[in-house]
Amino acid sequence: MRQIPVDTSAATVMVAKQPQIKLKDRRTGEVAVDIESGVKLMTVDVMFAANDQVEILSVAVPETGISGDLNMGVPVALTGLVARPWENEFNGQKRHGISFRAVAVTSLAAGGMQAEAA
Predict the structure, then answer these.
(1) How crowded is residue 40: how many other Cβ atoms within 10 Å of its Cβ?
(2) C-beta atoms surrounding 34 within 10 Å
(3) At 113, which helix (H) or strand (E)?
(4) Which of 40, 75, 81, 95 is the most exposed place for a label (fewest CB within 10 A)?
């Protein structure tokens, strides 16, 4: 599958919604897991501001990659962020979009960084 690396060095990234468990199937409640590691996946909605534009992105990240205080408004670093185009067909209707995945989401708040160092 094609993956496109996303450069976050010139962006401001903040938590828009606290991490939530990512569901593979909403009807059954099946939790999504990373295929390679078997670790549960989480979704973190972030405000991504760059080039005078702001968007809310939902980023999938392994549960083990979440660190620090990730409350709304907290600035974060997205490690290994990639964009993946997707396409599917449901009930005869084609849909497409871009999903985002990161290796880690780390709080940049002073308290979060001190907690990590301890």
Answers:
(1) 14
(2) 17
(3) helix 110-117
(4) 95
